[in-house]
Amino acid sequence: MDIQKYRRSTFFLTALLLLTIAAAPALAAEVETLILFDPMAGETPESIVFDRADNAYITLAFTGEIRKIAPDLTQTSLAFLPIGTPCGPLAVVALGLAIDRHDQLYVAVTACDPANSGIWQVDTDDGSIQLLANAPSFVVWNGIDVHKGFIYAADTFGGLVWRIPAAGGSPEIWADDPLLQIAPGSPFPGPNGVQFFRGSVYVVNSSTGGIVEIPIENDGTAGQASLFGSVFPLGCDEITFDVLGRLYCTTDPFNTLARVSPDGTVEILLTAADLLDGPTSAAFGRKGTNKKNLYITNAAFPIFTTTFRPSLMRLRIEVPGAPDEY
Description:
Elements: H1 3-21, E1 31-36, E2 45-50, E3 56-60, E4 65-69, E5 75-80, E6 93-99, E7 104-110, E8 118-123, E9 129-134, E10 141-147, E11 150-155, E12 160-165, E13 172-176, E14 191-197, E15 200-205, E16 210-215, E17 226-230, E18 239-241, E19 247-250, E20 257-260, E21 266-270, E22 279-284, E23 293-298, E24 311-316
Antiparallel strand pairs: 1-24, 2-3, 3-4, 4-5, 6-7, 7-8, 8-9, 10-11, 11-12, 12-13, 14-15, 15-16, 16-17, 18-19, 19-20, 20-21, 22-23, 23-24
């Protein structure tokens, strides 16, 4: 892969799309910035999940840190994943994050040392970490979710979805479909965010803008993939659902939050005018009135931003997020 060509193509496409969406109205009245992170310290929030006590956990991509944020916004460092130091044109990152019914965290990591690349488990009680599965050579696992003892991981350059036992074990290719492949000539990767919802695994293909629905059959195999919707040409980074089955899509580096209804209708809820700066992930709170709050991480990755404003934001939605389905 020609990284410099990728970056040049991405820069020009980003500029074009930012001009296109700059005038889009902000449809949400209740959005606020809760936390500003330090870009000079490499604090680039990538993924967010909540535990049963409504604590948020965020991966900081370039440092490997898992940051815990309490409901009162108190911050502590829970753990550091062994990503190493920057070691090439592809940045070393802690990517996708998932949480199970026991509040155990799972993190997809790409590390300088291939022996440390794979799926890691993080104990939310004491911050201890262990490697569950090493990623095969040249495989980059990105977005992940956990369901019924298995972790589903997007292979962002291979156009696949892998399945890994949450208790540890050998990874296997779970889904291989043309809808997951990188679009020819696209400067963007393929499979990115992953979310389980109502019996299916949803995977976003950043290169096509497509949101792919893959049902889980009774025997655990992948069913026939189909297109749930599309936000082309923006493409999603990560996704989450509300109780009405509407999907919320963060569009790093295009500074929009989009909502996709089951009929395919796309609404732009927030833009750069609302201080989005590379929105990478979104998740609903877990308890009481917080279930109607959508939390958004902005990574402000240096190659895409001019404002360098990594942050955690909160948007009030009229309905709760979808309940967790472990």
